[in-house]
Amino acid sequence: MQDYTKLRVWQQAMDLTVDVYSVVNQFPADEKFALCSQMKRAVTSIPINIAEGCGRDTAKELAHFVHIAQGSASELECETTISERLGFLEETKAQCLREQIVELKRMLWNFEKKLRTEN
What we know:
Elements: H1 8-24, H2 35-54, H3 59-85, H4 91-117
């Protein structure tokens, strides 16, 4: 078992979560239960899966949850692009979020790779 709060990847995921919540709270009211909700679920899934994996017994189990977090990050990346195309996000804010997401995906990939080599 690891203390997930000390993992840089978890800290980055938490920072992204706060940023996404800040952005989607400015979406139109009729998106509250649609794209806004989807983005919140996807972004919170990332640090939650890291935390859940850290509570497991083996590096292999943790790697599995990190892999799920990667999928959530890819989902969020797509939803960010959709939000931009629909005019809910300005181009500069969408690009900033995408850069954070891509960096986080890189960190997750490297973390998973490291965990898989420990087995």
